[in-house]
Amino acid sequence: MKYMPELFDANARWAEEMRVADPGFFAGLAALQSPAYLWIGCSDSRVPANQITGLKPGEVFVHRNVANVVVHTDLNCLSVMQYAIEVLKVQHIIVCGHYGCGGVRAALEGPSHGLIDNWLRHIEDIRDWHNDFLKALPDDATRWRALCELNVIEQVRNVARTTLVGDAWKRGQALVLHGWIYGLEDGHLRDLQTSLKSGSELDTVIAQAVASSRLRYADH
Ligand code: CO
User: Of 8, 25, 26, 54, which residue is least crowded by CB atoms under 10 Å?
Assistant: First the structure.
């Protein structure tokens, strides 16, 4: 018995379309990948890195976890980053969150989701750092959107503070970090203005990004 034959059929059609469009496509990729981007995004099935950026296989190296969190002891994420920076020599690292993130909402609601509470603690920390601001917002939906943005900005800070990125910048390697957020409701990406190309800009850029995010919500 073959499970999920529709997926294999779809795969066969896709591989054939790709081959027809570019007969050397798969042979080229099998020999080498040289993506310019590392994408750190949420596992959410509605936010697939390649499709929403129009990138083909081979063009973006991807790490996804619940709520696009970068933790300094997460060997999985750090290993992806090391390979991307030191071997693939990506030029950009994009942390991409999304509005409507279930992980962020769970962190706002507080504990009671089982094992994942331990992962979400990292977002609860961010919630607590920005508690006065979040509490002053008019409703839970607005708090949710605001925390989705703040989480991206704080994760860009975490990326910048890894030894991997610090060492790359010390070596003079060109590497720019970015924080983006995706709207499930309209399919659009927004730049949260956290782009960074050196450690010396870190505090200023993050502070400005947090301030503009807060300002957007203060208008509500
Ligand atoms: Co999510």
Answer: 54
Q: Domains in the chain, please, with CATH?
A: 1-32 (no CATH), 34-216 (3.40.1050.10)
Centroid of ligand 1 to alpha carbon of 148 (angstroms): 9
pTM for the whole thing?
A: 0.95
Catalytic site residue from 44, 96, 122, 130: 44
Phi and psi for 207 in degrees, rounded to 5? -60, -40
171 Cα: distance to centroid of ligand 1 (angstroms)? 34
CA 204, distance to chain mean position in Å, is 21
pLDDT digits (tens, 9 = 90+) for 84-132: 999 999 999 999 999 999 999 999 998 788 999 999 999 999 999 999 9
CA of 78 to the centre of ligand 1 (A): 20
Of 9-13, 42-46, 82-86, 115-119, which gets the smallest average pLDDT?
115-119
